[in-house]
Specification:
alpha+beta, 5-stranded antiparallel β-sheet, 4-stranded mixed β-sheet, elongated
Length: about 425
């Protein structure tokens, strides 16, 4: 019997040292959890824990449980947990009388193995809950911050990283720059994108594609931005390919664009390298929307802009040789300019002498062009044949979300109409 009791006591001490190793929970909280867990088990065994005193010292691995019971006359015990017969009490102390209280030290091990297992399970559950709360609170307050974490494992759809405290951080494939490739043990920088806490199980998601990641890198690398001398007005990214940022300064002695780029691009180079050679254009911000759009479409030279401020739309007119520059490779330049300025930008070729030339509404061509194609183009804001012919082909393909063959057929029909009229 003694051997059994000794084994159970040792297993309890092991329980304390095991839970005391958790660095994420402060000692006061841990003490409270241990006491609460003891009381939970006692209440299950006796039906109530209110007449028990529990004192726990997790550092030494010891604990003391005492139970107080009222002395009643022999034969009058109604609740064995809260009352004790006088004859039983006098075995403990001969001087006891009816109405007094008896406090006894109780060996938890005497409750049996099941009680000890219940205690361990209760403790484990409560500690896990506290660790989850602690992790959630720690990272929820840090959303938008850059962290550096170690790659632990890479799967098809996400990469698992661990921080200095061995907390799991997830970097989904969709939040990785296309040219990112990770090896176990490598340190990766990313921004804390969001913290989910579904069912009390926190998950920390990181991102390297978020505009916030570029914003934070700029704050780290360019002191004037960190100090507030230069204000970062906007950030737009096509991750791993190209980005545009807009900056301004209230100090007339500072060139915000030059300060960000640095001599021969030295300041921005480390960020470009971190982002796998993402090309970063730095634009000077302006509160004048027309000027801002003009700068955002750099390197193209804009001839004229017609703004619709209510709908946040801009019709931009350019010389034919500037159109491809405005649109950029794969439509990147116009897409980033739209993202940066907040305006939907449509580009048109500026053609001399066509202002008074006869035009035809697109709906007139419904016998030769499918109505759904006409509707898709009209949804872009193009209503007439001339407007469509003056708009860049690549822009129509992308913005109307049409197949190239469909667009080419439509353009062919429209051109033929005017060529017939001219001949």
């Amino acid at each position: 019997m003694m051997a059994k009791k000794q084994t159970e006591t040792i297993s309890l001490i092991d329980t304390f040292s095991e839970f005391n190793d958790t660095k994420k929970i402060d000692n006061t909280t841990l003490l409270g959890v241990l006491e609460e867990s003891f009381r939970s088990v006692i209440a299950k065994i006796f039906g109530s824990d209110e007449n028990f005193t529990v004192v726990v010292n997790p550092e030494k691995g010891d604990f003391e449980i005492t139970r107080s019971r009222e002395i009643v006359a022999d034969g009058e015990v109604e609740d064995e947990n809260k009352q004790i017969a006088l004859s039983e009490a006098q075995k403990i102390e001969p001087d006891f009388e009816v109405g007094e209280e008896v406090s006894e030290h109780i060996e938890f091990a005497s409750f049996g193995r099941r009680a000890i297992l219940t205690l361990r399970q209760t403790l484990a559950s409560k500690i896990l809950e506290l660790e989850h709360d602690s992790l959630y609170n720690k990272y929820k307050d840090r959303e938008g911050e850059i962290v550096s974490a170690e790659v632990y494992q890479t799967w098809k759809n996400e990469t698992l990283l661990v921080d200095d405290e061995k907390n799991d951080l997830l970097l989904p494939k969709s939040q990785q720059i296309p040219r990112d490739f990770y090896h176990k043990g490598e340190h990766v920088r990313a921004v804390i994108d969001r913290v989910d806490n579904a069912n009390g199980n926190p998950k920390i998601y990181l991102s390297r594609t978020s505009p916030m990641f570029l914003r934070r890198l700029l704050e780290q690398e360019i002191p004037e931005i960190a100090d507030g001398v230069i204000i970062l007005r906007g950030v737009a990214r096509i991750p791993g390919e190209r980005a545009k940022i807009s900056v301004e300064s209230y100090d007339s002695n500072i060139d915000p664009v030059g300060a960000c780029v640095g001599v021969k691009g030295t300041r921005i180079h480390s960020i470009v390298r971190e982002l796998k050679n993402e090309n970063i254009d730095v634009v000077q911000y302006s509160s004048n929307a027309m000027l801002y759009i003009q700068r955002a479409l750099n390197p193209a030279r804009v001839s004229n802009i017609v703004l619709n401020e209510e709908e946040k739309k801009a019709e931009v007119f350019l010389q034919p040789d500037q159109v491809s520059l405005a649109i950029g490779k794969g439509g990147q330049n116009i897409k980033l300019a739209s993202m940066l300025t907040g305006y939907t930008i449509d580009v048109f070729r500026e053609v001399e002498g066509e202002q008074d030339v006869e035009d035809i509404y697109l709906d007139e061509f419904s016998d030769e062009i499918d109505q759904w194609v006409i509707d898709a183009v009209k949804a872009m804001g193009l209503r007439t044949a001339r407007e469509v012919l003056n708009a860049p082909r690549d822009m129509i393909v992308e913005k109307a979300d049409l197949e190239e063959d469909t667009v080419d057929h439509m353009l062919g029909v429209l051109r033929a109409e005017f060529e017939e009229g001219e001949s």
